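Quick one, probably user error.
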């Protein structure tokens, strides 16, 4: 049985990808194979980086991607307003369709039997054994606190939602799609078609348009009753930690973070624009939480290239956040 780590990337997130790969090497171990799933064909820098790493490969199989893109298109064709809404915002087809390439990890032709998927804007800061070991007893494992905010998973205004997923399930089963562990072969074709049929019968209105990939994956796991095991809900309080860049209280020690003395497994720079990382790595003195930690891992093997930041730093919250820009694009908030 082969365990491995997936991420989704292109040249637009090159700096985050390098930092992630370095953090895996240092904190999870060199033995874990890593597979970068191609977001699109902008991969020149990604290819060069992968060529230098023995344990990293690139997945860009158009046949695999086509299967999962077709599924995603079928899903959103069942929604009463999504495609028209996106079209009115200048978005052709399914919003951020390439994000669904991450579903390739479930494909029978994918390389890993069991896997952890991590967004590229993540740092691994500790052993991943706890997550992989949890897959011995569960088919789907997460470690986050998204259950505190279901508004970014489902349409809370939908009258269908409480009928479909009672509040107790929403409070315990939803998760952020930036980090999850699962197994190859889940969601076979016949099950995917069943899911599409259920969505077409009126259930599609529960999906959240602002994060289509995340909403659909949560629907898939909950509707098929796979059983999502969330370590944040099951670990003893004296062992569990936060993992989001939005938590300001983490303490840094020897290039790792601690939550009231407990070591983090990973840190997700959620909500920070990839442009912010590019500007920082180009030498612009933009600041954001745990910036020095990111710079350490980004330039771990090439410290001579670490930018020399001069002058007064510009706080990241003085810039439009990634989430704010997405919401503006979708018409959920207005530019000032």
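Nope, works fine. Designed sequence:
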């Amino acid at each position: 049985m082969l365990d491995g780590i997936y991420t989704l990337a292109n040249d637009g997130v090159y700096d985050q990808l390098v930092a992630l790969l370095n953090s895996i090497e240092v904190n999870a171990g060199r033995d874990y194979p890593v597979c970068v799933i191609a977001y699109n064909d902008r991969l020149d820098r990604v290819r060069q980086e992968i060529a230098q790493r023995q344990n990293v490969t690139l997945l860009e199989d158009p046949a695999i991607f086509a299967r999962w893109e077709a599924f995603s298109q079928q899903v959103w064709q069942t929604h009463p307003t999504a495609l028209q809404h996106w079209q009115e915002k200048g978005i052709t087809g399914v919003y951020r369709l390439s994000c669904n390439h991450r579903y390739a990890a479930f494909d029978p032709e994918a390389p890993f039997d069991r896997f952890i998927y991590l967004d590229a804007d993540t740092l691994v800061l500790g052993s991943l054994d706890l997550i992989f070991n949890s897959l011995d007893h569960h088919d789907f494992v997460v470690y986050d606190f998204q259950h505190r905010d279901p508004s970014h998973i489902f349409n809370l205004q939908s009258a269908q939602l409480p009928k479909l997923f009672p509040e107790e399930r929403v409070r315990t089963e939803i998760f952020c799609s930036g980090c999850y562990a699962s197994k190859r072969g889940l969601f076979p074709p016949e099950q995917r078609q069943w899911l599409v049929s259920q969505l077409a019968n009126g259930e599609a209105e529960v999906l959240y348009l602002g994060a289509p990939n995340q909403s659909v994956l949560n629907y898939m796991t909950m509707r098929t009753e796979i059983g999502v095991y969330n370590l944040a809900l099951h670990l003893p309080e004296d062992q569990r930690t936060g993992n989001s860049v939005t938590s300001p209280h983490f303490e840094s020690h020897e290039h790792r973070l601690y939550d009231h003395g407990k070591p983090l497994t990973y840190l997700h720079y959620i909500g920070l624009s990839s442009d912010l990382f590019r500007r920082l790595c180009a030498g612009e003195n933009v600041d954001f939480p745990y910036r020095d930690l990111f710079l350490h891992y980004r330039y771990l093997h090439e410290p001579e290239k670490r930018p020399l930041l001069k002058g007064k730093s510009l706080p990241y919250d003085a810039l439009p956040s990634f989430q704010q820009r997405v919401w503006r694009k979708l018409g959920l908030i207005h530019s000032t």
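The CA atoms of residues 155 and 208 lie 5 Å apart.
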